[in-house]
Specification:
By secondary structure, the protein is mostly helical. The protein is about 55% helix and about 0% strand.
Length: about 350
């Protein structure tokens, strides 16, 4: 599928929106800081004592997936799942301060060189023993999964489940990843919010369950959805913040900023809810809608600025470099344009 420039902007907005939502929400997690009257700011702090603009485990784990997707490897394959698992483990070995309890347990038990199969088996075993593996830790990182599958929603749903099940095996957690990833796909392609577009890719019982949960989100104040550490309430919180935030008439893309503020205003797991919401908001409004003041300072593991996330998203969605081999080169030679100006010929 050849994406238009606007679609490609929205594809890049998916990971950028999630990253800035994460960094914006981090200081306010569990009430550690109060939002000022002028709205949330990238002030740093929070549980992980982050620097201003630094993203948390939400975006770090999303990068672990995006890094593989950008190389064009089929995310449903054993090779891709193993590479993602190894990325997770490399990060785990840095002793991050903000890793989720369930994720920490899975990565610790899967061993120093996990494969996709062994990590998924470890995740399954934990679910079989406890029945409680539906935290929001897989939903928060699902955004990049949509990018290679814009032309194949059925494959996207399968990939979202498999990548999610590496750490969160519960069916509701897997369904949440599939549903949100499919909503992201729809927003990228059609420039509209339609989370119900993914219901047809769930079985009958699951589709009925989620239709009811989405209805609750659309008819209830966003503040209802706390605590939101569960994948279901985290998705409801993000969706409720989006649908209850008016789209401005003068500058519709301002909806991204306003809805992120609404997501953070819910409270509790603010960075994760804002990261989830930011992925869909970015998919709808595009990377170009993300304020420069956020882009300038947004950064995080493994030593990246958010511009690198945009480059990787471009590669994942475009299935490789675009015109003039961007972003795979350091410098674009524009001399062809000067030559064309002199001799009057078209450079194309």
């Amino acid at each position: 599928m050849k994406l238009t420039p606007a679609q490609l902007d929205r594809a890049c907005g998916t990971v950028l929106g999630s990253a800035v939502g994460d960094a914006l929400g981090a200081p306010y997690e569990f009430g550690l800081a109060k939002v000022r009257p002028d709205g949330p700011q990238m002030i740093g702090g929070g549980i992980g004592r982050f620097a201003p603009g630094e993203w948390t485990d939400d975006t770090t784990m999303a990068w672990c997936v995006l890094d593989v997707a950008a190389d064009g490897i089929e995310l449903r394959s054993d090779d891709a799942l193993t590479r993602i698992a190894r990325n997770f483990r490399a990060w785990y070995d840095t002793s991050p301060p903000d890793i989720g309890t369930q994720t920490r347990m899975i990565l610790g038990q899967a061993g120093p060189e996990p494969t996709g199969a062994t990590m998924t088996a470890t995740s399954y075993d934990l679910h079989a023993r406890t029945g409680h593996t539906a935290g929001n830790g897989s939903l928060m990182r699902t955004a990049p999964v949509a990018l290679p599958y814009l032309d194949d929603p059925a494959a996207l749903a399968e990939a979202a489940r498999k990548v999610g099940a590496l750490t969160h095996y519960d069916e509701h957690a897997q369904e949440a990843c599939a549903l949100w990833s499919l909503a992201i796909r729809h927003a990228i392609l059609y420039a509209e919010f339609d989370i119900r577009s993914g219901l047809e890719h769930l079985d009958t019982d699951a589709a009925a369950y989620w239709a009811e949960r989405l209805g609750e989100a659309e008819t209830s104040d966003p503040g209802r959805f706390r605590p939101n550490g569960w994948a279901v309430t985290a998705l409801q919180a993000a969706w409720s913040a989006i649908v209850h935030t008016p789209v401005p008439d003068v500058d519709p893309r301002r909806h991204l900023e306003d809805a992120l503020a609404a997501a953070i205003g819910i409270g509790d797991d603010t960075d994760t809810v804002a990261a989830i919401a930011g992925a869909l908001l970015g998919a709808r409004w595009g990377a170009s809608a993300v304020p420069a003041k956020w882009r300038r300072i947004c950064h995080g593991y493994p030593g990246l600025a958010c511009a690198r996330l945009v480059e990787l998203a471009h590669l994942a969605a475009n299935k490789g470099p675009g015109v003039y081999n961007w972003p795979g080169i350091d410098h674009i030679d524009y001399s062809i344009y000067e030559a064309a100006r002199i001799d009057g010929a078209s450079p194309f």
